[in-house]
Amino acid sequence: MHVEGDYWADGAVCVRGAFRPEHVALAEEAIEANLASLSATAKRASSSDDGAFVEDFCSWQRIPAMERFIRESGAARIAADLMGASVVRLYHDHVLVKEPGTRQRTPWHQDLPYYNVDGRLNVSMWCPVDPVARESTLEFVAGSHLGPWFVPRTFLDGQAKWFPEGSLAELPDIDGDPSARIVGWVLEPGDAVFFHMLTLHAAGGVSGDRRRRVLSVRFLGDDMVHAPRRWTTSPPFPGLDDELPAGASLDHPLFPVLWEA
Predict the structure, then answer these.
(1) 176: helix, coil or strand?
(2) Residues pairing with 187 in the sheet
């Protein structure tokens, strides 16, 4: 296992050889089981004439291979080391599959503004089970996790369905900014990227006959708390606002402890 990058300086790192072949196989099994039985939160994030980009969330309680990967792969320990956390909880799992011919680019965005949590100690893991070329990989604006929150928008039509218009900064023109330091990595199965939930990131489409199947897992460290919203978050956690007050620790069966010092 080898870490490329500096988590707290850049907001994203690549961990080479993060997972053994048996854990990659578990991740692949979990992804395929999820695709075969999509949940009510699943969505298509590509236009109807542009391949298929399918996403689904929060399936660990119904897909045994998903739970096994989350608990057995060692991902939570890697997350703890990167964050410097003494406790790591699961936030949610997220399957992202771009089928061959999906040309559509995933636009620049941060994840935390879509969520119902807040705090500094967090990390998202992005683990492909297929080789990922540089033009199709997840890429990041290094250091952007240290900056402001930007308005989260829908990927296809740019609607502000979460924070109201004008309540957060507008996303700058990343692609037109020559000073932006963009980092990204060619990945093989077993490699993974780990990034802060406020790091700006985007990804290209896939060409030819190559699939890009990814299992992403989001982890919460010591200081993460519940942040109820007046709108439906992505993913949603129905009824949680009635069980946890604002600012409360995420001590709840939905967010089990995966690693503890």
Answers:
(1) coil
(2) 132
91 Cβ partners below 8 Å, 6+ apart?
Answer: 115, 117, 122, 218, 219, 220, 224, 250, 255
Using DSSP, state whether 184 is helix, strand or coil. Answer: strand
Indicate the number of domains in the chain: 1
Average pLDDT over residues 60-69: 98
| Amino acid found at 243 | E
Tokens of 3: 């870490």
- Per the document, the length of the chain is 261
What whole-number distance in Å separates Cα of residue 50 and Cα of residue 62? Answer: 30
- Say if residue 206's pLDDT is above 80: yes
Domain assignment present for residue 251? The answer is no
Cα 81 to Cα 8, 38, 121, 194: the distances in Å are 11, 33, 11, 11
User: Is the pLDDT at 216 greater than 70, yes or no?
Assistant: yes
pLDDT digits (tens, 9 = 90+) for 233-254: 999 999 999 999 999 999 999 9
In a domain, 255, yes or no: no
- Per-residue tokens: 59: 């399936």
Question: CA 9 → CA 71, 124, 195, 239, 246, distances in Å?
Answer: 28, 16, 11, 36, 29
Which CATH number is 28's domain given?
A: 2.60.120.620
